[in-house]
Amino acid sequence: MSAAPLILGIESSCDETGVGIVRGTELLANTVSTSMEQHVRFGGVIPEIAARAHLETMIPTLQQALDTAGVSLDDVDALAVTSGPGLSGALMVGVAAAKALAAATGKPLYAINHLVAHVGVGVLDGGELPENLGALLVSGGHTEILKVNELTSDVELLGQTIDDAAGEAYDKVARLLGLGYPGGPAVDRIAKEGNPKAIRFPRGLTMPKFVGTADAPGKHRYDFSFSGLKTAVARSVEQYQAKGLEVPVADIAASFQEAVVDVVTKKAVMACTEHGLTSLLLGGGVAANSRLRELLAARCASAGITLRVPKPSLCTDNGAMIAALASQVVSAGVAPTGLGFATDPGQPVTQISLTA
Amino acid sequence: MKPVTDSPLWTREIESIDAETTQALAARIAGALGPGDLILLSGELGAGKTTFTQGLGEGLGVRGGIISPTFVLARVHPALADGPDLVHVDAYRLGSSGEIDDIDLEATMPTSVTVIEWGRGKAEHLADSYLEIHLLRATGDDEAGEEIIIDFEETDEDDPRVLRISGYGPRWADPALLGL
């Protein structure tokens, strides 16, 4: 094996079928096929539909990635696949495909953590990851703050949502406001026309009893809650409707978005400051949100934290991130997982690659 | 299986002053539950359905991390000791009882307590007996006539709910079973 291993990564944890190919930290192919359109009428991802779509698109996506990279399966040094966290049925398709490829080619197979891969993808855009790194992951299914002690062996969960994920709150609020699915881009778009200070929506888990102090942290110091915010938006909409008034959709959208972005950025920066983290990587689909990027950049700058945001095609779910993390895992000398593993829909961030 | 009757055998209302009280009530209800039991949870967005389920999970002694299942539709929380697993389902995005059948709850029901948020009208056919728990919160309608509220900031004030519990089918003939 040469110094920079050639890795093929497969991702199928949600509604994106992704196959990526990297050589070390160099991106050679990042092919993604999404079944998003098929989920629109359900207002969210339906796992069985996603799984079926993965089945249909897996082979063409794989073929296209190989063509784009100009390599053959024979050239690949190792295979990698998302084993979790994610939707059970969706994960199974990617894992079955990866195991079949490994069995057919005899190549080593690595089972990779989807969330840590959102961090590992950083090496493809801007090179090696800095020391003292934190990560903020925000997507339809996830809202987490991570402390990356060692990318391939030691990642800690500092905070997460205790009810809805941020992207899920966007979907629910978009539905309350009649904006359609997916909610993130729809709310972000109309929020630009509204006043973010028109309505003061709750910032979940920011009261002293939850936050505590740096020395005596409360139970939910770095955790998020978007359920109360969603309730407040529902009550806000209902009171206009009950009075026969027009619902100020743009103002509600802008004020809701401000509440989400305010609490997410504040807690992420606080977690970094209190854990001596001098760099922060932003990942996940909601990283595309314009207001989130803007406020996070401003607050990181004030706190002296270097913010790193990979390009959008690497922030949303993709196979290149699985290959990128696997490449680091291979280079660190970690043994392959082999074929004897199962999907883990709730795989914790402490399991970066599964051991055989 | 079709429920024996479409009207409840009994209904009880319990007031809860805050989320902790709701969870404590749920934990007590959990004490009366066993494998195969079905609970339909209803109530508006934000009424506290997931909060209630967190208390239920605590009472059943299953693996924690109970968060909204809207995104994944269904999540299994395995028992930490002897006892049933908890299967936490959100039917909000599902259109009909046929789509409920698609997620194959029948495979897990015999060994689990199954809780279905927004299950009313879609999931009754899964068991011949079930509990319905309807959570009621103050809605924006109740604020009609007053000024438009524009400050919803998180406060220490209590956020009361009413739990309306109804029993359906032979399993729940006697409300005293719940021990409330």
UniProtKB/TrEMBL annotation, chain A:
Main location: cytoplasm
Binding site for substrate: L137, V138, S139, G140, G141, D171, G184, D188, N289
Domain Gcp-like: 26-323
Gene3D superfamilies reported in the protein's UniProt record: 3.30.420.40
Domain of life: Bacteria
Residues binding Fe cation: H114, H118, D317
Catalytically driven reaction(s): L-threonylcarbamoyladenylate + adenosine(37) in tRNA = N(6)-L-threonylcarbamoyladenosine(37) in tRNA + AMP + H(+)
InterPro entries per the UniProt record, alphabetical: ATPase_NBD, Gcp-like_dom, KAE1/TsaD, TsaD
Name of a matching Pfam family: TsaD
Compartment list: Cytoplasm
Keywords for this protein: Acyltransferase, Cytoplasm, Iron, Metal-binding, Transferase, tRNA processing
Cofactors required: Fe(2+)
EC number per UniProt: 2.3.1.234
TM spans (from-to): none
Cofactor note: Binds 1 Fe(2+) ion per subunit.
Signal peptide: none
Function: Required for the formation of a threonylcarbamoyl group on adenosine at position 37 (t(6)A37) in tRNAs that read codons beginning with adenine. Is involved in the transfer of the threonylcarbamoyl moiety of threonylcarbamoyl-AMP (TC-AMP) to the N6 group of A37, together with TsaE and TsaB. TsaD likely plays a direct catalytic role in this reaction.
Family: Belongs to the KAE1 / TsaD family.
Protein name as annotated: tRNA N6-adenosine threonylcarbamoyltransferase
UniProt source species: Zhihengliuella salsuginis
UniProtKB/TrEMBL annotation, chain B:
Keyword Cytoplasm: yes
InterPro entries per the UniProt record, alphabetical: P-loop_NTPase, T6A_TsaE
Spans traversing the lipid bilayer: none
Keywords carried by this UniProt record: ATP-binding, Cytoplasm, Magnesium, Metal-binding, Nucleotide-binding, tRNA processing
Major localization class: cytoplasm
Presence of keyword NAD: no
Gene3D superfamilies assigned to the protein according to its UniProt record, in alphabetical order: P-loop containing nucleotide triphosphate hydrolases
Compartments in which it is found: Cytoplasm
Function: Required for the formation of a threonylcarbamoyl group on adenosine at position 37 (t(6)A37) in tRNAs that read codons beginning with adenine. Is involved in the transfer of the threonylcarbamoyl moiety of threonylcarbamoyl-AMP (TC-AMP) to the N6 group of A37, together with TsaD and TsaB. TsaE seems to play an indirect role in the t(6)A biosynthesis pathway, possibly in regulating the core enzymatic function of TsaD.
PANTHER family noted in UniProt: TRNA THREONYLCARBAMOYLADENOSINE BIOSYNTHESIS PROTEIN TSAE
Family, similarity comment: Belongs to the TsaE family.
Protein name, UniProt field: tRNA threonylcarbamoyladenosine biosynthesis protein TsaE
Organism from which the protein derives: Zhihengliuella salsuginis
